[in-house]
Amino acid sequence: MSQMPPEPAVWQEIRGGRAPDQSSLSRVADVGLALLGRGGVESVRDTLQTRLLGAGPLEPLLDTDGVTDVAVNGDGSVWVDRGNGMERADVEIGGPVELRRLAVRLAGLAGRRLDETAPYVDGLLPSGVRLHAILPPLVGDGPHLTLRVPSRTALTLTDLLDRAMFSPDVSEVLQAVVRERVAFVVTGGTGAGKTTLLAAMLGEAAAWERLVVVEDVRELRLVRPQVVRLEARSPNVEGVGEVTLTTLVRQALRMRPDRLVVGEVRGAEVRELLTALNTGHEGGCGTLHANAAADVVARFEALGALAGLGPGAVHAQLASAVRVVVHVGHVGHGPDRVRRLESIGVLVRESGRLVVHDALASVDARTCRGPGWPALCQLLHLPARARAGNIDPGGNRPSTGSADGLRSER
Fold this sequence. Notes:
Layout: H1 7-15, H2 22-30, H3 33-52, H4 59-62, E1 69-72, E2 78-81, E3 86-89, H5 96-109, E4 120-124, E5 130-134, E6 144-148, H6 157-162, H7 168-179, E7 184-188, H8 194-202, E8 211-215, E9 227-231, H9 245-252, E10 259-262, H10 269-277, E11 285-289, H11 296-306, H12 311-321, E12 324-331, E13 338-350, E14 353-363, E15 366-369, H13 373-380, H14 384-388, E16 402-403, E17 406-409
Helix pairs in contact: 2-3, 9-10, 10-12, 11-12
């Protein structure tokens, strides 16, 4: 088994004021060339890079295909989500001291500070992994780490169709939402696939379109000719330097966007977003935490209150700003749990209130039409035959059967 190079060589680099990087670690590893041989030096270099530049013992999990989240609790237990919910991972972190050292180092890689004066951090690692870390006494037992792993590839609607997230009929409707430049929000719970679906839908936008994306922490994976990314900034330890999403949305409107994209609408920036979508910025979109599509209006009311808007003002702006709600969730439990598009709805006024009417819904593995289907067809300029009886906007298959009062197509 390879031995580590002499300890003084490591400390000489650090005491010299040189932060570890790949070249400096290579120099340290080369100190042991005569003793270890070339193969041993390569092994030592890999170990040093993992310990000092990577995520330490968590690195193999972050490199595993299908992993979306990694969490380390204060007791040192490691949990991983491979798409089927959190499960225990056989990884040894060490005690609270080692866990704190790892958390502080990862925060540094994200350009953030983590100590008693700044006991929590939300940042982005150079690899694109989203980091959250929090220290005691704000959390019990010991430091806690949460890592959100981005998709390694930009998934398309075709990819999500192949993974049975929705049916071919629904895929064509999603394409029409983007093609017709209708403003929409993707809603759902944590880990339901909101960001993944939003990125896939934006992949259908015309190549000439200039997308200006506003995010708290960069998560949307977009491969396009013209994407402008704006990322919020937390205040420093002196409490200054903060740049909020509200400020960034205002800045985005001055950057000539063809589409304004807010990665996650969750605060007072909702006022600027609604204003923008009511002033000629078509095709705007974002994600929103909601347990059901029917809860979307209430969620916007709550966010509007943070910006000083009353329910009436929110309804007045929302009615003409956002037209379509795409809701995603999980189906099944444990290893059988999968992400599924649950419904596509339209915002309509009913008895003086703004509500979401399902246009398409997934019911018992069937694609069903709801009361909002005619309004969605009109909004997306779908063919008359689709309005008359077909779910598929490009096909001629009639709908048969019923489920929960909705005519459906198997």
